[in-house]
Amino acid sequence: MESIKQRQVAKLIQIAMSELAQKEISTILEGAMLTVSGVRITPDLFTVRIYVSIYNHPKPEEILHNLDKNNKLIRGLLGNKIKNKVRSIPQLEFFKDDTLEDVQQLERIFDEIKKKDAEIEKLRDKNSEEAD
């Protein structure tokens, strides 16, 4: 269970990271679009896990690697944004959020099921007409 302080700091970091992704770390992103989909912070407020969705790039893992490689730079930029609101700037850990991809995959599966159901229904209708 997250404390109120954890939720406040996580929300603050999520907003600041979203702004950084739009403006200041575009070279790291290599033209990819990045969305900060979630932020979780440890109870001691020293480590933050940032979940990102990466779009418009053939190799999203490469962007994730770039974020990890430039961790110090990003942490410094984040620190400049939130330094007056927190005591210390937490360590950053980046994780790829596959939720949207999972939803799209499920939608494709459901579409296939609907198509097969429609085909089966047509065959049933055809068979019942022939039986009459």
Notes on the structure:
With 132 residues, the protein is an alpha+beta fold. It has two domains: 4-97, K homology (KH) domain (GMP Synthetase, Chain A, domain 3), CATH 3.30.300.20; 99-132. It has helices at 4-23, 26-29, 60-69, 71-82, 99-131; strands spanning 33-41, 47-55, 91-96. The longest helix is centred in the C-terminal third of the chain and has 33 residues, at 99-131. The chain is elongated. The protein starts with a helix and ends with a helix.
Which structural traits does this protein have?
single chain, 132 residues, alpha+beta, GMP Synthetase, Chain A, domain 3, three-stranded mixed β-sheet, 5 helices
The CATH topology of the largest domain: GMP Synthetase, Chain A, domain 3
- Uncertain segments: none
> Percent helix among the residues?
55-70%
* CATH arch. level architecture of the largest domain: 2-Layer Sandwich
Which whole number gives the mean pLDDT?
A: 89
Report the portion of residues in β strands: 15-25%
User: What value does the Rg take, in angstroms?
Assistant: 23 Å
Instruction: Give, in order, the helices and strands.
Output: HHEEHHEH
Number of helical runs? 5
- Report how far apart the termini are: 64 Å
Count of individual domains: 2
CATH homologous superfamily designation of the largest domain? K homology (KH) domain
CATH C-level label of the largest domain: Alpha Beta
Main beta-sheet annotation: 3 strands, mixed
Order of strands, main sheet, comes to: 1-2-3
What are the SSEs and their pairings?
Elements: H1 4-23, H2 26-29, E1 33-41, E2 47-55, H3 60-69, H4 71-82, E3 91-96, H5 99-131
Parallel strand pairs: 2-3
Antiparallel strand pairs: 1-2
Helix pairs in contact: 1-4
